[in-house]
Design a protein that fits this description.
Blueprint: E1 7-18, E2 21-32, E3 36-40, H1 47-54, E4 62-67, E5 70-71, H2 77-81, E6 84-87, H3 99-104, H4 119-132, H5 147-159, E7 165-169, H6 177-194, E8 197-201, H7 205-211, E9 214-219, E10 222-227, H8 229-232, H9 235-242, E11 244-250, E12 257-264
Parallel strand pairs: 3-8, 3-9, 6-7, 7-8
Antiparallel strand pairs: 1-2, 1-4, 4-5, 9-10, 11-12
Length: 265
């Protein structure tokens, strides 16, 4: 298999429960290296839990997550933090923290007790802020930022980790259309220009189809189907997974499929 298409992450028969509620049910999923994988599905289907399990924030009852063929359970926390970055839904930090202070938190996995802050840390923070366009507001308090500015600052923090894999859980949630596009274009730039492996959770199917290399439909704690957006955006599959009758047309600008929902199936 070509290295660029090899699985960066391999989720194998992962089962995870909250009490008696099974959230992930023997779920398996390859996540290709150097591609954008988008997870989509109805509320409560396990998308966010899967993303957090990939970052080892939830311990599964069975199964495993492999990173470059190595079980992530064998990595210590900082070692994993140098390989996979995660921006969860609705992150929080003290409102009087500056943008630069927030972004500097991304260097935590690279710090050691006897290892002082280095020029390399400064360079990583500066590059992350410049890449997300928040370098001009580095001294501003995060409580003074707009929603789009704040989201870019959080993404900059993840970038400062300098991980090859970035997981983002609903990064465009609560953003207007312009800031949604800004955020996803930034993510695409990181993928195309830097070769980062990106895993996104998105609710908007049309954004998912526009930006995904691999689109994954999750339902009932399992992967219902995965593939290129052109293969996944089918009326029968959307009716089955989302319980919505829809028409699928082609975006005349980007030549990607668009879902036009009609009514509940």
């Amino acid at each position: 298999m070509d290295d660029q298409l090899a699985s960066r992450i391999e989720v194998k028969a992962l089962t995870l429960s909250y009490g008696n509620d099974v959230v992930l049910d023997a779920l398996s999923l390859p996540i290709p290296k150097g591609q954008i994988t988008v997870l989509a599905g109805p509320n409560g289907c396990g998308k966010s839990t899967l993303l957090r399990a990939i970052r080892r924030l939830h311990a599964p009852q069975s199964g495993q997550v492999l990173l470059d063929a190595e079980d992530i359970s064998k990595l210590n926390g900082k070692a994993l933090g140098r390989k996979i970055g995660l921006l969860a839904q609705s992150p929080s930090a003290p409102q009087d923290m500056t943008v630069e202070e927030l972004v500097r938190l991304g260097r935590y996995p690279h710090q050691a007790m006897l290892q002082p802050w280095s020029p390399g840390d400064d360079a990583a923070v500066a590059a992350a802020m410049a890449g997300t366009g928040v370098d001009t507001m580095k001294h501003r308090r995060i409580g003074s930022l707009s929603g789009g500015q704040l989201q870019r600052a959080w993404i900059a923090m993840v970038l400062a980790q300098e991980t090859d894999t970035i997981c983002l859980d609903e990064p465009v949630n609560h953003l207007d259309m312009a800031h949604q596009l800004d955020c996803l274009e930034l993510v695409t730039k990181l993928n195309k220009e830097q070769g980062r492996t990106i895993v996104l959770v998105l609710h908007d199917l049309n954004l998912a189809a526009r930006y995904a290399d691999q689109l994954v439909f999750v339902a009932g704690g399992k992967v219902r189907e995965r593939g290129a957006p052109e293969a996944m955006m089918r009326a029968d599959l959307i009716a089955e997974v989302f319980s919505v009758n829809a028409e699928i047309i082609t975006d005349p600008v980007h030549q990607r499929p668009i879902c036009i929902p009609h009514r509940r199936a």
